[in-house]
Batch of 3 targets.
Target 1
Amino acid sequence: MRSTKIVTSFIKDNNKLLILKRSNKVKTMKELWSGISGIIENDELPLKRAKIEILEEAGIKETEIRLIKAAEEMRINSPQYKNHEWEIFPFLFEAKNPTINLNWENSDFKWIRAEELESYKTVPSLQKVLFNLL
């Protein structure tokens, strides 16, 4: 089975979590809600990739975030590709009133309470990823 390593990060501000809606310009999971995610390149450390993705996708600088928790790596079967799994490295960060500047990968964002996530059409197993961080 083929495996792709990715990071998925959530940003927390008070009791709300940031979720992003993937644009129709991305290759996979178009127009589904997600955390801030990206593919880990080569032997890159997952935490380093998470911080890069947060800056690229949401415009939040490393100096504006604080790591709260890194959960155990998770393996999720991909519904889109045969014999493929996503190896997910989950992170939860805190930020105080960050300004969100989306890039082309996402078309919208919302601040929600954790229990509201189930009412959104999300990438596979996003609730499971979040649950492991809370």
Target 2
Amino acid sequence: MSHQRKLGKPTDQRLAMLRAMTTYLLENGQIKTTYARAKEVAPMAEKMITLAKNPNLANYRKALAYLTKEDVAKKTFDELGPKYASRNGGYTRVVKIGPRRGDAAEMAIIQLV
């Protein structure tokens, strides 16, 4: 299993943050965040799209259990699943955009390809 970054947060807060960011990414197509967070969000977003490629009730409910907005889950299954049907993985891209002004944290944009 790959090593999970802790991102300086307790487990519950970290999971809540990743859920929120994954939901936001699927909703809006891209997010600007720190590089470390982007690297954690990517696999979760990929998982959600992979679920949506095989649309059945069980998979829909798995997605609902993770995503924080029902309409985003619906969009993932109605639009994103079919859109990536012919593509095997690699639905997201993480692009570094340089350091943040305040604390020089490496910033990145994560986007759906």
Target 3
Amino acid sequence: MKIAITETAIGAFALDINGNVISMMLAPRDINKLVERALKVEEDLPTDEFINLVNELRSKFKEELEIIVETEGYARYLSELGLKPIIEYDNSVILGFKRNLPKYVIELGIVKSEGEFYEYVHTLSLAITRNKLRRVAQKRDLLVIQAIRAIDDIDKVFNLFASRLREWYSIHFPELDDLVGEHIDYAKIVAYVGSRENLNEVQLRKLGFSEGRIRRIVDASRRSMGAELSDHDIRPIQTLANIMLELNKLRDELTSYLTSVIREVAPNITELVGPLLGARLLSLAGSLETLAKLPASTIQVLGAEKALFRALRTGGKPPKHGVIFQYPEIHKAPRWQRGKIARALATKLAIAAKADYFTGRFIADKLKKSLEERIDEIKTLYAKPPPKAAKPERPRHPRPRKK
């Protein structure tokens, strides 16, 4: 005997080949239970109503049943029970029943009108959407992604402010630009000292400068060719420097927070490439789940999408690495070794991401050891650059003689 079973917003229904309802199991009217039920259906997992309906049909019909369902998950469950499932994604009986569902619900007395039924479905849809958003918000990897993006934003703003600060303060003390290369040290001098007339060895020593650099800065301040500025002119420059120091402090706090969270979310990736690079990989992929499903070849070029598409469009050479170039062993390696090391690292990252997302097992120690052995092998086998390919000679055509 053939029976079609379908899931709806109000429960599970069993239909004969003519579309008549043989049996049904109505879902509870509690909105929270309805949301959980709807999410189960979306994940292709049999609901309690479906399971109870199948058990009732098996006890009611002693003959062999052939049950038509719409998804593979439900068919798998029926196979485990020893039944014969038939998967039909667009079964006409089921589609016809769903088209007339509002009228049938009114006959059952669940709602009084079609408008009330559609209002019920709308309310349920909103509740399901809210639940999904709440579930997504609870994913810890999204916290990692937002933190690393905030750090990158801070870096951009900090570098922009540093460029402006150097140009601005150079009006007063141009020699300092060459003497202090680090932006944060430059900002400290401007914020804590201000006018070059206030510079002395004691202040610079408190800021942590070496004795040699202290002497050079003090000597330069005494014979500077910069313009004289009043306290009124220096004060806004110091304000900008103080903002840079606060940004640097915020970056340190975010980095500390990021390190603790990503060790919890992706311990294998963190152990393999460090918290910042690991977080950037998560950010580029969009989530740990997406990263875990990416092949190693895609992980290798994450962050170099523009170069990759340009190469595909123009027929040029594709990039050998993306953001994983920040891995020390890659950017320190000679040019001809980088692609091979990047490929080896991407392979291990693909395994680490899958372990972090699907199993939670810590295997980074084995992956790291294997990666280090492969890097040593690459450095040994490809110690010298490959010979340059000889350019094909152009055929020489004899010049025509002048008559």
